[in-house]
Design a protein that fits this description.
The chain contains no helices and 13 strands. It is mostly beta strands. Strands 1, 4, 5, 6, 7, 8, 9, 10, 11, 12 and 13 form an 11-stranded antiparallel sheet that branches. A two-stranded antiparallel sheet has the order 2-3. The chain starts with a strand and ends in a 7-residue tail after the last strand.
Length: 160
């Protein structure tokens, strides 16, 4: 399992070519994205007793981050506070620096965490990391890839 700042690609370290680990790097501060308003859109939107259901090119944007999927369900409290978002089918979570692709994603508002599962692909620039489960914290911009074998190709900063 790999724990790292989401800017994990900034440095890959190989010890005698036998082990591969990522170097934690402090991400540039972009303000607190988790506190920004959320805009949404889809081909079809329905209000449900539990929140909102979106189908067909469903998309949510918050700050500079965007989530899109075939379908998205957002759960809210009685006072319309967002508690959970579940996305499925061709899920993409895009930040100004990274793109994450998965089959399924669940965002939990109480801890600002997105758990992406299925065929997960995390890219930053030319560098790529793959696995079956990625936990990403929107507030801290940290990520943990696991759920089986994790693989990646890392390009050091400044390489072409």
């Amino acid at each position: 399992m790999t724990k790292t700042k989401i800017t994990w690609i900034a440095g890959a370290v190989a010890a005698a070519g036998l082990a591969l680990a990522t170097q934690a790097v402090h991400a540039q501060s972009r303000g607190n994205v988790a506190d920004a308003p959320i805009a949404y859109g889809a081909d079809q939107i329905a209000r449900t007793p539990a929140g909102l259901s979106m189908r067909g090119r469903a998309e949510l944007t918050q700050g500079g981050n965007r989530m899109r999927a075939d379908s998205v369900t957002a759960a809210t409290t009685d006072s319309n506070q967002l508690t959970r978002i579940e996305a499925s089918g061709n899920v993409y979570y895009v930040t100004p620096n990274e793109t994450i692709r998965a089959d399924h994603a669940v965002y939990t508002a109480s801890n600002d965490t997105i758990i992406l599962t299925g065929d997960v692909i995390l890219t930053q620039g030319k560098s790529v990391m793959t696995g079956s489960r990625l936990t990403y914290n929107v507030r801290t911009e940290t990520a943990e890839m696991g759920g089986g074998r994790v693989q990646g190709v890392f390009y050091p900063q400044g390489s072409n």
